[in-house]
Structures are given as C-alpha cells and as structure tokens.
Amino acid sequence: MSDALTRAVDWMSDVLEWLCQPVDKMPTELIMQRLPSVFETNACSLNWRDGPKTFGMIMNPADILLREPSTLEAWQSGDLLDCHGLMAWYDLTKDPAPQTLARVPTRVVPRKRRILVERPLARIGIEHQLSMVYESQGLRQRAFVVARGGRDYNEDDLMVARYVQRSLVTLDRQSRVLSDLTQSGQAHVLDLGMTGREVAVMQLIGEGHSTRTAARRLSCSPRTIEKHLEHGYRKLGVRDRLNAIRVARLAGIITDSGKGVRLAGSEPMPSRMR
Questions:
Q1: Hey, which bits of 86-236 come out as E strands?
Q2: φ/ψ bin of 150: left (φ > 0), alpha (ψ from -120 to 50), beta (otherwise)
Q3: Which residues pair with 146 in a beta bridge?
Q4: Tens digit of pLDDT for each residue in 18-42?
Q5: How many CB atoms lie within 10 A of CB 67?
Q6: Residues 6+ apart with CB under 8 A from 134
Q7: Domain boundaries along the sequence of the chain
C-alpha cells in the first residue's frame, strides 16, 4: 500500500469513528488535531467567510501568527484578502477542489501583491498552504488549511486531500442533520446502539426526502442509505420505514420539524472509502 493511500485510510478510520457518534456540530478541534499528522505540517486552521468583509479563522497553534503582528493586523482588517492566492483562486474559479498556494498562477494574483502575504508567512514557516473547502455557497465558505515551510505539497498530498475534503463534507452534512437532536434523543440513540450516521439517515427520511435525495445530502450512495435504514430498523425493533420513523419520533431520536437542511455540494466519496 502506498504512503498516500495509507494516510488516507488512517484518516478515514478516524472519520468513521466520528460519524458513529450522534455529534450535532462539526468536530473542529479533533480535525485540527489530526490534520497536521496526515500532512506533516507546522500549522492548521479553520477559515470561514460569510461575505466580502465577514471572515475569520481559528489557528493551531493559536499563537503562530502573533509572531508577525503587523501582518496579522492587516489580515484582520481585510487589507490583505486580495493578496492571498488561495482566496483569489476560489473566488475566480469557483472550483472547490483542494489547492495549494504555490500552484495558484501569478495571473490570478501578481507577484508584487502576493509577496505581501507570502514573505511574512515564510518568516514563521507556513508559506506553503493546502486548502480543503468543505462548504461553498455563494460568498459563504468554510475550509481547513494546513501549512508548512520549506516544501510545497506534492501530488500524493493532493490525492489525500481529496479524500479528506469529501469526508469533511460528510461530517459537516451529518452534523447539520443532527443539530436538532435533543438530549433525551441522544440518550436513546446511545441506549439503542444507533450510530450518528443511522440517525442522520432516519432524520432525512422522516422529513420526507427520498433515498436518492438523502444520499446526495449525506454524500454517499442510495445503496448505503438503504443499508443504514436496515440497521436502524433492527435496532428500533421494526421492519419497515413507516414504523421506524414513528418509533424514532416517539423516542425523540429524530425531530418532526420538517425543515430542510441547506448543505454544500460535493461529489460522492468513492465507494471503497465509505
């Protein structure tokens, strides 16, 4: 097994463990602790943007940017946003595929502008950056970025990043579906041994979504949805979809809100990695 595939499989084993939990929010801290070892990096960040001047980030380690206070201040004010190659790349191409800072062509951001960001980043050893977007809707964007100094990320790193990105989309989608789960519902989920994935599927089906729509929202195949439903039936002690939804609602495992969940688009994960 190649090093890249080994890293992807190791990462997915952690993701599968997270997916089994009825977690109602993105496990950001766990992700930021794990990504540096997957990509051999010095730093990792969660970056978000909700509009032209509405943006932010969480860094790990938290104090790394404090070594360049003037750059940090300029970044927080928004003065350097159009100098960062990755942000300009995603704005221009609308392509959510993983990308590295060094691979962004100079025609996207001229050299004299990008050095305003890249030089101070080089001084603290994070000039090479790899971004993995897991949500992109208009101006709204969420991405994890890993960074290091000295050498850029290679094609193997990008291959691993594609698997990581798709799993991040899956984690985000599931946490959104489970966001309305009550504390009593969580207790019943644990008592019955249901996984977070099974509950998320049950919630979407209970909202009236078809198997195909549920598969698209959770970034998997319709066959995978059917398998999760079958496992859910067995744990709930029922034999069909109608009774499963009825029992799950009575137990508080799923809600009866009927509201849709807005999710980012992404191609399904390869079946061998589900």
A1: 99-100, 128-137, 140-148
A2: left
A3: 44, 130
A4: 888 877 789 999 999 999 999 999 8
A5: 13
A6: 142, 143, 144, 165, 168, 169, 171, 172, 264, 266
A7: 3-172, 182-254
In this structure, are strands 54-60 and 128-137 parallel, antiparallel, or unpaired? Answer: unpaired
Beta bridge partners of 132: 144
User: What's the pTM?
Assistant: 0.78
Measured distance CA(73)–CA(84) in Å, rounded:
15
Identify whether the C-beta of residue 86 lies closer than 8 Å to the C-beta of residue 103.
no
Token pair for residue 130?
């790899």
Assigned CATH topology for domain 182-254: Arc Repressor Mutant, subunit A (1.10.10)
Fold exhibited by the domain 3-172: Beta-Lactamase (3.30.450)
The residue type of 228 is H
Place of tokens 């595939």: 5
Upstream peptide bond of 61 is cis (omega within 30 degrees of 0) = yes
- For residue 20, what are its two tokens? 């089994």
